[in-house]
């Protein structure tokens, strides 16, 4: 009797495990991956970083963002050496991830059946599935394992669909086709490793909104991406607010320091080392009379400066 009970338990566990192998990650799994985020979420479980914070992030330099992440122990969030459709346009957004692999017939069958069970479209290729779930402010980020010929994840038709849904673009560790057509989509942008006129072939989608690798960066669904002509950096959602504020204050410090050096009020060594009490006081006074609009609220600035030792 005990053996039969144990066998039944194993069968139940096995069937549960099989059902758990989704193409798209469940909201519960995404919440587990992003457990440090305490704010609002989308229905799919991804953190919903505010549009206002995304707008501020767009003004942050890659170097400043990288420095904040590095100081917090996140050393593998940057990837460079991209081909960019519109190099002088920056892009920020909330990440939707997709993983691609070389084709394997038995695994393709599993993916297609599971996709059907999840209600995903059965017409066209599976490379349309990540696009179907995009919402405004999303950036479609895919690991195409660097495949160029026969590895083109989108052309201009899918590019138009992506922009219509997200008002953003894509970041592909792989290739696209019809760059000329993609470049004509106003507002769309793409960070890619290359382009080719071929169609996607011998390549399959294996997951949506699971952790992926993009070059030397580790990317989770719900990360926020800052992409510029100098590279792309992927930021854990729960760190975005602190990263933006820290970077904004650092840029104000740099602006103050550069101005005072031009005025020859301080020596280079005084600005480049730990500030004296007189310089700190001068900086705080300078902030009170800042000629433009500060990027943060006065309350945010006051709270931030309380614990700083400049």
UniProtKB/TrEMBL annotation:
Name of the protein in question: Demethylmenaquinone methyltransferase
Cofactors (names): Mg(2+)
UniProt-recorded Gene Ontology molecular function terms: metal ion binding
TM region(s), chain numbering: none
PANTHER family per UniProt: 4-HYDROXY-4-METHYL-2-OXOGLUTARATE ALDOLASE 3-RELATED (PTHR33254), BLR3842 PROTEIN (PTHR33254:SF16)
Residues where substrate binds: 155-158, 177
Keyword set includes Signal: yes
Binding site for Mg(2+): 178
Extent of the signal sequence: 1-20
Keyword Metal-binding belongs to the record: yes
Organism: Mucilaginibacter polytrichastri
SUPFAM superfamilies: RraA-like
Pfam family, one: RraA-like
Keyword annotations of the record: Magnesium, Metal-binding, Signal
Highest taxon listed in the record's lineage: Bacteria
